[in-house]
Design goal:
Radius of gyration: 16 Å
Structural class: alpha+beta
Number of domains: 1
CATH superfamily: 2,3-Dihydroxybiphenyl 1,2-Dioxygenase, domain 1
CATH architecture: Roll
CATH topology: 2,3-Dihydroxybiphenyl 1,2-Dioxygenase, domain 1
Distance between the termini: 32 Å
Strand order of the largest sheet: 3-6-5-4
Number of helices: 3
Number of strands: 6
Helix content: 10-25%
Shape: globular
Length: 137
């Protein structure tokens, strides 16, 4: 038996001024499953949404610029951008725009063979939707 993993889960915690809008967008429109919703003293609320497998992608400034150039055609990403793998980037992008996300860049085929779109979403997050084109569905 191998050594147990030192990290069991990655959680990204985002403060949302419009909590209800953010929960509805990420849970109901994007489709992240609700793992837990907790209310605390003083009106404190948190909803934990399951996002499948998590990775932490560390990129140097040159790589960040390259990704922006490929996906958007100009520098737009903040220091932190959240990316979600989906089965149909075009359809999911349209759904998110209809639900209030701002389209930054239409779905674009990248040199690394994925179909990526970029959106500004609730809670001040810039997100990428990506579909692996060479993956078997």
């Amino acid at each position: 038996m191998g050594t147990p993993p030192r990290i069991r889960q990655l959680r990204i915690v985002v403060e949302a001024e419009d909590y209800d809008e953010a929960v509805a967008f990420y849970r109901d429109v994007l489709g992240l499953d609700e793992e837990a919703a907790i209310a605390g003293a003083g009106g404190a609320l948190v909803t934990i949404l399951e996002a499948g497998r998590a990775t932490l992608e560390i990129a140097n400034p040159a790589q960040k610029r390259l990704i922006d150039e490929v996906e958007v055609g100009r520098q737009v990403a903040p220091r932190i951008r959240i990316a979600f793998e989906v089965d149909d980037t075009a359809t999911r992008t349209a759904e998110l725009v209809e639900a209030g996300a701002e389209l930054v860049a239409e779905p674009t085929v990248t040199p690394w063979r994925s179909l990526n779109s970029r959106l500004n979403a609730p809670a001040g997050l810039q997100i990428t939707l990506f579909q692996e084109l060479d993956a078997e569905n």
